[in-house]
Amino acid sequence: MLRLAYLIAMSGGWAPRVYDERPFAQTTLVGNHHTDHAVVSAEGFVNRNIWRATMPATQPRNLQGQKALVTGATSGIGRAVALQLARDGAEVIVHGRDAARGAETVDAISAAGGRARFVGADLSDPLDLQRLVEAVGDIDVLVNNAGFSWFGATADLKVNTFDALFASNVRAAFFLVAAFAPGMAERGQR
After folding, report:
1. Containing H/E element for 14?
2. What is 36-75 written as a DSSP string?
3. Overall pTM > 0.85
4. What is the pLDDT of residues 112-163, one digit of tens each?
């Protein structure tokens, strides 16, 4: 099922909207479920006009025989995505900068019966990024999750911090797509 997700303003709040291939079908993500015509405000409150829950947001998928690279997979969202991809049958390449946390993620996947390995790299370093690409080989799934944030007044952001943010959060993701997407498309994994 082909889906396109984006945010749409409705009833004074933002709600993630998912459109599928059915004519005029639309659902809204509310918590972990899709609901028709529901609105989640910016504060997280749900409009009481929820008609029906239609399906969980995380549907089991068969990813047997596929290999997935998840950047930033040693904690948070990246780790959760890596664990889910492994549950769905993918061999997961866990990326991060901390080998100990990477080993913990790999151990958690292996303990649950999945297959995983860790590849460490600093994505802000172009040479390390290239080494990661070479170490990973062909993949079927790319999750560009790694990155970091800086909080403060705009006037206080130093050039070297901005450059590091851009290198990790934008440049690395761009060049990972450039490295892996042609092979993925050639093998039919769009």
Report:
1. strand 13-19
2. TT--B-TTSPBPS----EEEESS-----TT-EEEETTTTS
3. no
4. 999 999 999 999 999 999 999 999 999 999 999 999 899 999 999 999 999 9
Closest CA to 120 of 154, 141, 146, 94: 94
What is the H or E stretch that residue 86 is in?
A: helix 76-87
Q: For each of the domains in the chain, give its residue range(s) and CATH number, in order of start.
A: 4-56 (no CATH), 67-186 (3.40.50.720)
Bridging pattern class, strands 67-70 and 91-96: parallel
Helix, strand, or coil here: 102?
A: helix
Output phi, psi for 152, to 5 deg.
Answer: 160, 180
3-class DSSP assignment, residue 91? strand
Q: Distance between CA 158 and CA 151 in Å, rounded?
A: 12
